[in-house]
């Protein structure tokens, strides 16, 4: 069904007005999916045109795209896309700042603790003394990542764990907003055996302090980069500080396509959204900005790798991880993060006079207003 934009808007205005507990009918669900397909096809077409303008665009095993030096493509991303996945290690349930794009926005004071002296790995709680047992029983991962929320809130607790995984020859990377890092703690991380550190530079609005910490980190940790959700604020902030950022000699920039959940979506009220494969909901400008960013990087021949960590990439990541875990053919945990589709967030793009569907058809008999009965 190639639903027209006019009909899609009419129906989505109706769906948006429904009580939250009212389920839509099967034929109405077909209309929803037809609308999503029309929006996604138009977005894909726009992004493909942008990609065609990047002369040096490269693919990493058909799973994702990047430009620049392949040798600087983050090893943690390689593990994520071809190894045994992200293998997240969680410890810190607090953060020192609150970002509008954070998946825990508005609930940072309510994030449950892991537990005194405990670490969460694969959904299981471990004491430090249990790591040797874990490594002796299960196949060691190709890489692990330290996430959730800001590790530098209690970074001293991380050194012994990092040393254990270093001795096991497991690649380790850590995420941080970088505002609490110091030369002392960055040096200690390097000495403990951390292989890679990723700074969310957008979290601090590209602050000079964090840029300085990126440069310091490069003295002690082999692989240093930026990983930030691509937003207009980060895009413009980066280019204001571009030379200072390049002076850090960082290795990579991962441009994450911003996807939204129930906590942060209201911060982007009124933006044009699309849904990818009925899964992640994203503002359409996020990947567009990434592709523009990559085109500039390619044309200016930046001495690093710039990675398009898009919704497509996250879909590939999920397929890879499921495969490594022995899942059935086609199995994936990629999916929508909303228990009920937030129909109203798609109204702005359907009302945008400058956004057009690629092709349209009249609604078939039985799908027009007043005709749907089951």
Low-pLDDT residue intervals, each spanning 5 or more residues: none
Our count of helices gives 12
- The assigned structural class equals alpha/beta
Q: How confident overall, as mean pLDDT?
A: 97
The total number of structural domains is: 1
Major β-sheet, in short? 11 strands, mixed
Strands of the widest sheet, in order across it, are 1-2-13-10-9-8-7-6-3-4-5
Output the CATH topology: TIM Barrel
- Percentage of residues in strands: 5-15%
Gist of the model:
Helices cover 36% and strands 15% of the residues.
Draw up the topology in text:
Layout: H1 5-16, H2 26-52, E1 58-59, E2 65-68, H3 75-82, E3 88-90, E4 118-121, E5 124-127, H4 131-137, E6 143-147, H5 158-167, E7 171-176, H6 183-192, E8 196-199, H7 208-220, E9 223-229, H8 232-240, H9 242-246, E10 252-256, E11 273-275, E12 281-283, H10 284-299, E13 305-309, H11 311-324, H12 347-351
Parallel strand pairs: 3-6, 6-7, 7-8, 8-9, 9-10, 10-13
Antiparallel strand pairs: 1-2, 2-13, 3-4, 4-5, 11-12
Helix pairs in contact: 1-2, 2-10, 6-7
